[in-house]
Amino acid sequence: MTGNLTLALTVGALYTAGTFLLLQRTLTRVVLGLGLLAHGANLLLLQAGGVAGSVPFVGKQDGPSGAGTADPLPQAMVLTAIVITFGVSAFLLALAYRSWVLTGEDDVQDDVEDRRVARRQDQP
Amino acid sequence: MLALLALHLALAFLAPAAGARLGRNVFLLVALAPAVSAVWAGAQAAAVLDGRPPVQTTAWVPGLGLSLDLRMDALSLLMVILVSGIGTLVFLYCARYFPADQAGVGRFAGVLTAFAGAMLGLVLADDLILLYVFWELTSVTSWLLIGFDDEDAESRRAAQQALLVTALGGLTMLVGFVLIAQQAGTASLSAILAEPPTGGTVAVALLLVLVGAFTKSAQVPFHPWLPSAMAAPTPVSAYLHAAAMVKAGIYLVARLAPAFAVIGLWRPVVITVGLATMLVGGWRALRQDDLKRLLAFGTVSQLGFLMVLLGAGTREAALAGAALLLAHGLFKATLFLTVGVIDHSTGSRNLRELSGVGRRMPVLAVAATLAALSMAGVPPLLGFISKEAAYEAFLHGSGPDLVVFAVLFLGSVLTAAYSARFLWGAFVAKPGVAPTEVHTPSPGLLAPVVVLGAAGLLLGLAPQGADPLVQAYADSYGMPPEVEHLALWHGLTAALGWSALTLLLGAALFARREPVLSMQRRAGRVLGLVDAGRSYASTLTLLDRLALRVTVLVQTGSLPVYLGTVLVTVVVLPGSALLLATQITGDLRAWDRPLQAVVAVVITVAAVATARAHRRFTAVLTIGAVGYGIAVLFVLQGGPDLALTQFLIETLTLVLFMFVLRRLPANFTRQSMRTGQGVRLAISLAVGTFVTAAVLVSGQARTAPPASQAYLDQSLPDGGGRNVVNVVLVDFRGFDTLGEITVLVVAAMGIASLVLAGRSRRSPRAEGETSLTAATGQALDEPGTPAPERVG
Amino acid sequence: MSAAPGTSDAGSSDAGRGPSDSGAAPRLPGAEHIDEVRRSVVLETTVRLVFHTVLVFGLYLLFAGHNQPGGGFVGGLVAGCAFVLRYIAGGRAALQAAVPVDPGLPLGLGLVLATGTGITAWLFGGQFLESGIRTLELPVLGTVKATSALAFDTGVFLVVVGLVLGALRTLGAEAER
To answer: Are the C-beta atoms of residues B728 and B639 closer than 8 Å to each other?
Structure first.
C-alpha cells in the first residue's frame, strides 16, 4: 500500500483549520470547525480505501473480481458520516442560536461555578 | 449463626417502626437479638471448648468465590460473649437511660442493633472478605451512633472523624487481605491460619492489615477519634469501648497473631505501637476532669496493653491477653454505665463538681469500685489475675522482653493512678465542694451495672470459670508441656511483688495528683506540638486545600482549555508513539489523478479562509466551497453516491446556516478573535501534522486484504443490488444505518426543543391552520405578536 | 438562492412547460402571507413548476438506488431540497400547504419502518435485519424483484425528509421572525 500525498496533505489542512476553529469561543466558529473536521475525517476514511477506481457497481467494472474498483466500504461509512454530520451541525446551530437568544451572544463563557471555585482559592 | 445475624437485621429494620409505638421500651424488644445470640453461644460453649467449632457455609456470590463462611472457635466465643453478653446488658440499660419522650429512639435502637449484628458477624466470619464487609459495616453504623445527636456540630465532627479514620484503615486492610488471599490461594480464614503463606508480599500485607487494626482499635497515632467519639450517648460509648468496635482491631490481631506474629515486622511494630498507646492513653487519662473522657483515654491505654499481649505471639502473653480482654470488657462497661447513671442523676460528669455521690448511691458506688479495682489490678478481681499473667509472660524473658515489661509496668502504674482518680472524682465527698444533688436512679438503670461489676469479682474469685475458654484460645499456639492456669494465687512470685509495687506507685501518683497535674501541663506545652488530634485536623485542612487546588487547576471551566488539553494529549501520546515506532518507507504517490491536486489547493485555501474569516457570512460561504470541493474529490475517487450526497448536504447546510445567521450579528466578537490565537494556531498545526503523518503511516500498515472484496462479490447474489455502496448501507451493514437514522431522529427532536423551548403555546394563527400540530404551531409565532402579517 | 445548485439540473428539463399554467394560478399556494414587495413572481412560478419534478426525482433515486446511484439518503435529501425550494419561495405557510403534516410523522414513521424491517426478518426465522429477496410476476410491470432492503431504505428516506422538514420548520421559522 502506498499513500496519496495530496489527499494526506488536504486532510492535514482540514484538520488544522478545523482544530483552530474548534478552539474558539464563538459557538458559530466551533460549529464551522466541526464541519471542517468532518470533511477532513470523511476524506481520511475515503483515502483509506486505497487508490481511486471505477464506481463500485456490479457489472460496471472490467471483471467480476473487482480489480480497479473503488472500495465500497469506506464509501458507505463516509456516506453515513456525511448525513450524521448534517444532523449534528443542525443541532449545534440550534444550540448556538439558543445561546444567542438567552445571552445575546454566542460566545461560550467560562463556567460560572468553576470561576467561583477559583475565587475561593484566592481568599482562604 | 446466619439466623442470628438475620435476627439482628430483622429487628434493626423493625425498630424504627416499633420505636414510634413503644418509645424507649423498644430496647427491650431489640435486646432479644444479642440475648438470643449470647444464649446460643453459651449452649455451644462445650462443643467449642472441645475443639468442635460450629461451622456454617452459605453461597453468596459464587461467581466471585464469595461465600458466607461462619465459624465459632474459642476466640470467637470469647468475643461473642463480650459482644452479645455485654451487648444485652447495654441494651437493657438503654431502655431506662433515655428519657421516655426521647425523639428518634426507634432509629437509634435500629442502628444499635445493626451495629451489634455487624460486630457479631465480624467475630464469626471465617472469610477475609466477609470479615472486611462486617468491619466496614461496624464503621458505618458506629458513625451513625456517634453522630446520633445530629444537631450538635461537635457530635457530627466526632462521627466524621471516627468514620474517616476507621474507613481509611479498613481500606488499607482490604488491600492487605487481598494480598494475603492471593498468596494463600484462598480467602478462608481458618485455611489461611492452618497453612499461613510466607514471603515478602505477606510481610507487607500484614503491615497493611495492622494499619486497619490500629485505626479501629485507636492505637497511636490514630487514637484521637476514640476520645472524640464520647460525644455519643453514654451507653453507646460503653458498648463501643468495652465490647465492640475498638475490640475489632484487637480481635483481628489476636486472630492472626498465632500464624503471623513471626513474619516480617509484625512483632516489633505491634509491640511498639501497643506500648506507646498504653503510655499515651494513661498519661492523658490522668489529667482529665470529665469522667467520660478519663475513661475514654483509659480505654486507649488498655487497648495498647491488649495489643501488646495479643499481638506478641507467645502462648503466655496470649493467655494473659484473652483474660484481660474479658476483664476489660466487664470493668470498662461497668464504669461507662456508671458515668451514665451519674450523668443521668446529677446532670454533671465533671469530677471537680461532683461531691459525695457515693454516699447517695451506695449500690452504684460498690459496683463501680469493684470495676475500678479490677482495672487497677487489685486482687481478688479478674483484672488482677490478667495483669499478673501479663507480668508473668514478660518477666522471665531476656533483654527486649524486660523492656516490654518495664513499659507495661509503667503503664499499669498510670492505670492504677487514674482508676483511683476516677473513684475519687465520681464518689468521694470533696472538701470545699457542695454535695451534689442526686435523683435516685431507677433499679432498671442500676441492674446492668451491678451485674457487670459483680461478674468481674466472681470470675476473679473463681478464675476456673474463665480458664477453659482462655486456655482454648491460647492452645492455638500449641500445647506446652506444662500448662499455666489462671489463678488468684500462684504463691509468692516475682510478679506478685511487681503487682504490689504497681498499686503502691499508682496510689502515690494519685496522692500527689496536684503536683503531677501541673507537671503534666508544663510537659503538655512541649508535647502539644506533636498532638495527634491537631495533626488530624491539619491533615483534613490540607486535604481540603489540596482538593481546591486540584479543582482550580484541572477544572478551569474554559471550553477552549479543555479541548486544547485533549488535543495536546492526542498529539503528545499517540503522536510520539507514531514518531518513535514507525517511519514512512513505502513509495508515496503525489496523486491518483492530477485534478485531485487542483481541487486540494482550492479546498485548502477555502479552509484557511474559513478559519481567518471575521464575518459569519464569509465563513459560511468559504466552508461551502470546501464542501463542494470535497464532493469533487469524491467524484474523482470513484464514489458518485458520495458526491451526490455531499453536494446535497452542503447545499442544505448552507441554507440552514443562512437561516440562523440572519438572526446573529454579522461579525464575530472582536475580543474573542484576538486573545491566545498563537497558542491555538500552534495546537492546530500540531494536530494537522499529526493527522497527516497518521494518514501516511496507517496507509502502509495494511496487512490483510480489504474486507470489501466480499461485499463486491456478494452484493448481487445476497443483497440483490448492483450498487454495492447502497447494498452495504441497507443490507450488509444495516445495523449501522439503523443507528444512524436513530441519531438523526434524536437530532431533529433536539433542534425542535432547543429552538421552540420557552415559546408560548398559544398561537392565534394556529387556530386557522388546524393541520398544524402544537409543536409546529409554537414555531410559528412569538409571544405577544398577534399580527399574522408579520410572520412570513 | 443558495439552494439552487442542488436541484437546477433536475428542474431545468421541466422549466419550459411553465408559462402554459399562467393566470392567477401560478402563484404558490400559501405564499400570499408574504408581504407583496418581498414576493418574487419568477421564483414562485419556477418553484411551482419544479417542485413536483424534484420530489419525483427524489423518489426515483430511492427506488433506483439499489442498482444505480441513489438510495434512501440521496433520495431523501433531494426530496428535502424540494421542500427547501418551496419554503424559500413561499415562506413557512407555503411549506405548510405543501406538507400539511408534522415533521415528527415522517421521522417516526421512517424509524418504525426501518426497525420493523429488521423485526420482520426475525419473524421469518432470519437474523435481525437479514434481507429477503422475492421475484414477483406482476400483470403490467412484468418481473419485479422486491427486496426487504427497499422497505428499510424507505425508512431512511422518510427520516431524512423528516429531518430536513423539521430543521426548516424550526430554524427557518425562527429566521422569519
So the answer is: no
User: Residue B693 domain-assigned?
Assistant: no
CA distances from B585 to A3, B123, B563, B588, B702 (A): 10, 68, 33, 9, 13
Q: How confident is the model at residue B736 (pLDDT cuts 50, 70, 90)?
A: confident
Backbone angles phi, psi at B666, to 5 degrees: -70, -40
Interface probe, candidates A54, A75, A80, A83, chain C, greatest C C-beta count within 10 A? A83
Q: What is the pLDDT of residue B273?
A: 94
Chains that touch A (3 or more CB pairs under 8 A): B, C
The rounded distance, in Å, linking the Cα atoms of B160 and B166 is 10
Question: Is the predicted pLDDT of residue B65 greater than 80, yes or no?
Answer: no
Q: Give the range of the structural domain holding residue B66, as residue numbers without chain letter.
A: 2-511
What global pTM score does this model have? 0.68
In a domain, B483, yes or no: yes
- The percent helix, strand, coil of chain B (3-state, each to 5) is 75, 5, 20
Rounded to whole angstroms, the Cα distance separating B621 from B49 reads: 92
pLDDT 10s digits, B394-423:
888 778 889 999 999 999 999 999 999 999
Beta bridge partners, B69, equal B57
Q: Which residue has the higher pLDDT, B123 or C100?
A: B123
Give the distance from residue A3's alpha carbon to the nearest chain C alpha carbon, in angstroms: 28
Average pLDDT value over all residues in chain B: 86
Whether the CA torsion C31, C36, C41, C42 is positive or negative: it is: negative
Q: Residue A19: name the closest of A37, A43, A3 by CA.
A: A37
Indicate the range of A65-69, B510-514, C68-72 predicted with least confidence: A65-69
Is the residue at B609 inside a domain? Answer: no
pLDDT for B176: 95
Q: Which of B620, B628, B730, B759 to mutate to test the interface with C (most CBs of C within 10 A)?
A: B730
How many domains does chain B divide into? 1
| CA–CA dist C82, C85 (Å, integer) | 5
The angle that helices B616-637 and B640-661 make with each other, rounded to 10 degrees, is 170
Predicted local confidence at residue B356, as pLDDT: 84
Q: Show me where the domains of chain A are located.
A: 71-107
Report pLDDT digits (tens) over B346-401.
888 888 888 888 888 889 999 999 999 999 998 889 999 999 889 988 888 778 88
Q: What is the mean pLDDT of residues C22-40?
A: 63
Residue B786 in any domain: the answer is: no
Q: Which residues contact B42 (CB under 8 A, 6 or more apart)?
A: B81
Does the structure show a pLDDT above 60 at C19? no
Residue with cell 437474523: C127
CA B325-B326-B332 angle, to 5 degrees, is 85
Q: Is B613 helix (H, G, I), strand (E, B) or coil?
A: coil
Question: Is a pLDDT exceeding 80 seen at residue B790?
Answer: no
- Asked if residues B236 and B145 have their Cβ atoms less than 8 Å apart, the reply is yes
List Cα–Cα distances, B370 to B85, B295, B328, B342, B374, in angstroms: 19, 15, 12, 16, 6
Contact flag A86-B652 (C-beta cutoff 8 Å) = yes
DSSP one-letter string for B56-83? EEEEEEGGGTEEEEEE--HHHHHHHIII
Nearest to C6 among B641, B648, B656 (CB): B648
Number of Cβ atoms within 10 Å of the Cβ of B430: 15
